[in-house]
């Protein structure tokens, strides 16, 4: 295991005079040196447990990649291995084309933002920002330049003389992010940095993080279990389960065309509606059929032509379940959840609960019978046995 003293260096950051750069233009290009990250055949064992096995991941320079998954899926372990806080059992980690598999954290040119802010309580914001630069012997003028620009970017100027106890949770997290920025790192790593904040602050800082990435153009790898954070922040996202990347792609791709049932149900609120049935071929057309449903899926882009009668699962997002008087299917409204600009309508459909996102504000109530239809152009079909996308 690597020396934890080096961990502080890798996560720490600068500080100095706030006034030195107050009148200077913010040169964000000088604050980051985006690098690609290439992970090959990575295996991590903790004791007798294999947490990650033979994992490959390519992060392009300047990307914002989010590692998304439930607790225990290996996402934080993967992030910590990139940071050098966890020794790997096999495989390699390259940063900017250089093998960093066994490099100390301080030599990896990374900056890490923790879930807990990890600020020094007796130091001012300015001293927290400058700490790592000071202990590394960075010249005072350079410290002032970096701290001045980072504090301007994060609107920390008025707070530089305060102690962490005098800051709100959002301000503390800004300081933690500022400590990372001043390192002028190749790769920024975020370990669930917004988890300790309330809903309003999470929304605000999420927006600020996205804007920060746009301004810096930095390579960022971000761990979260929150699908909203992943969908809004990522240029690409890796959905993980059991130490395996289930799907890696843009948020739009992963949401619209999930690779398997796990991805389909993990993303989306409410989760994707699922119906079990069979695929039947009649007169050259293909249909998804249950005892109640017969949906034409002839235009569906199957990877391989399924056999007649093959058992499968139909998945359809709530926004693709349309409540309309002209529809052929009927169900009883079992529950309505007002969401402000829309309602989630839960339909009791032959014992199955089907969610529909409704923006019409039509005057119906719980217990009413309504007509609805599935949008066949936006359904997903999965093999019932393996859960893989057909």
Automatic annotation (TrEMBL):
Per the UniProt entry, what is one GO biological process? carbohydrate transport
Asked if ATP-binding is a keyword of the record, the answer is: yes
What positions does the domain ABC transporter occupy?
37-267
Q: Name one GO molecular function term.
A: ATP binding
> Where exactly are the transmembrane stretches of this chain?
none
One GO term of the cellular component aspect?
Answer: ATP-binding cassette (ABC) transporter complex, substrate-binding subunit-containing
What is this protein's record name? ABC transporter ATP-binding protein
- Keyword set, alphabetical order: ATP-binding, Cell inner membrane, Cell membrane, Membrane, Nucleotide-binding, Transport
Which superkingdom does the taxonomy of this entry point to? Answer: Bacteria
Matches recorded under Pfam families? ABC_tran, OB_MalK
């Amino acid at each position: 295991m690597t020396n934890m003293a080096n961990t502080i260096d890798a996560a720490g950051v600068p500080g100095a005079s706030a006034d030195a750069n107050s009148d200077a233009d913010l040169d964000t290009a000088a604050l980051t040196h985006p690098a690609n990250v290439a992970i090959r055949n990575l295996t991590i064992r903790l004791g007798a447990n294999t947490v990650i096995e033979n994992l490959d991941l390519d992060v392009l320079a300047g990307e914002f990649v989010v590692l998304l998954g439930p607790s225990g899926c290996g996402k934080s372990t993967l992030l910590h291995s990139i940071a050098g806080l966890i020794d790997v059992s096999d495989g390699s980690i390259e940063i900017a084309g250089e093998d960093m598999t066994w490099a100390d954290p301080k030599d990896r040119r990374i900056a890490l933002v923790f879930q807990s802010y990890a600020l020094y309580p007796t130091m001012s914001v300015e001293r927290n920002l400058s700490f790592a630069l000071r202990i590394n012997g960075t010249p005072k003028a350079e410290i002032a330049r970096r701290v001045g620009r980072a504090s301007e970017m994060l609107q920390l100027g008025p707070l530089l003389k305060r102690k962490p106890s005098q800051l709100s949770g959002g301000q503390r997290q800004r300081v933690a992010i500022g400590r990372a920025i001043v390192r002028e790192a190749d790769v920024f790593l975020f370990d669930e940095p917004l988890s300790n904040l309330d809903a309003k602050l999470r929304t605000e800082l999420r927006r600020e993080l996205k804007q920060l990435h746009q301004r810096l153009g930095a390579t960022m790898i971000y761990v979260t279990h929150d699908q909203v954070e992943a969908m809004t922040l990522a240029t690409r996202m890796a959905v993980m389960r059991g130490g395996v990347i289930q799907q890696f792609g843009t948020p739009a791709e992963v949401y619209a065309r999930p690779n398997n049932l796990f991805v389909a149900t993990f993303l989306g609120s409410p989760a994707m509606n699922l119906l079990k049935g069979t695929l039947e071929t009649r007169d050259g057309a293909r249909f998804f059929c249950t005892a109640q449903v017969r949906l034409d899926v002839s235009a569906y882009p199957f990877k391989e032509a399924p056999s007649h009668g093959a058992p499968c699962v139909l998945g359809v997002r709530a926004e693709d379940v349309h409540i309309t008087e002209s529809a052929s299917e009927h169900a009883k409204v079992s529950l309505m959840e007002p969401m402000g600009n829309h309602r989630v309508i839960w339909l009791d459909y032959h014992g199955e609960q089907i969610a529909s996102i409704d923006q019409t504000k039509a005057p119906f109530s719980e217990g009413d019978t309504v007509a609805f239809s599935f949008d066949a152009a936006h359904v997903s079909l999965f093999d019932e046995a393996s859960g893989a996308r057909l």
